[in-house]
Amino acid sequence: MDDEQRAWYRSEGLMRYAVSADEQGSVAEDERPPVIALGPHDNDFIWAPAPEAQGYPGKSLRDMTLDEYNIFIYRWLEAAVRAGDVRCAHCGRLILDDYQDLPDPDTWDAILIEKELVAWMVVHFDCKKPLPKKLKGMHPFELAPRDPPTYDLSEVRLPPEEQPAAETGH
Ligand SMILES: [Zn+2]
Q1: Collapsing DSSP states into helix, strand and coil, what is residue 157?
Q2: Which terminus of the chain, N or C, has fewer Cβ atoms within 10 Å?
Q3: What is the pLDDT of residues 9-59, one digit of tens each?
Q4: How far is the CA of 143 from the centre of ligand 1 (A)?
Q5: What's the predicted TM-score (pTM) here?
Q6: Angle (nearest 5°) at CA 9 between 163 and 97
Q7: Is-contact 31 7, C-beta < 8 A?
Q8: 123 CA distance to ligand 1 centroid (A)?
Q9: Where are the beta strands (DSSP E) in 116-168?
Q10: Eight-state DSSP code of residue 73
């Protein structure tokens, strides 16, 4: 994760901080960027990806609003689900692709948690309710997220307002 990505998380309020002081009284501040849960266990966490590294055709992170970044993360999660890489953050069952036609117990949603932990998670509809109990006391400084896998998002269709502007002149 580069400095620009960290700076963007700071400016959007997605960074979390911990301050520690040693016996000599020197104070250190540590920060943790947002994460994504690809499953129910502590070792299922990865760092949130940057759009540039995923071939995303939209804006670069620097120019994104939080809403636009959310859209990118959702497109990324859909690619992760298609690849069979995502399990429910609550029950651990594999998240199935093609959510249009899934039977009710398999329908799922991606959600953004902004508590002590800032995390995107994929859960079944029925697993949303018990999730807060699991999240209580989860602390970003106790996790050791991995780097995110890369999916090719170059074919993603952007919402109309995010289409690159047409060339003008001549
Ligand atoms: Zn579930």
Answers
A1: coil
A2: C
A3: 999 999 999 988 888 888 888 999 999 999 999 999 999 999 999 999 988
A4: 21
A5: 0.87
A6: 55
A7: no
A8: 5
A9: 118-124
A10: H
**H-state helical runs in the chain:** 3-11, 66-82, 131-135
Distance 129 CA to ligand 1 centre (A): 10
The confidence score (pLDDT) of residue 164 equals 60
Residues 6+ apart with CB under 8 A from 12: 66, 69
How far is Cα 146 from Cα 37, in angstroms, rounded to an integer? Answer: 11
Give the 3-state secondary structure of residue 133. Answer: helix
Each residue's pLDDT tens digit, 85-115: 999 999 999 999 865 677 888 899 999 999 9
b/e sequence 61-100, b meaning 16+ C-beta within 10 Å: beebeeebbebbbebbbbbbbeeebbbbbbeeeebbeeee
Within 77-116, strands assigned E span 108-114
pLDDT the model gives residue 163: 65
| Cα–ligand 1 centroid distance for 26 (angstroms) | 44
Tokens of 152: 């090719």
Q: Which residue, 149, 131, 135, 116, is CA-closest to 34?
A: 116
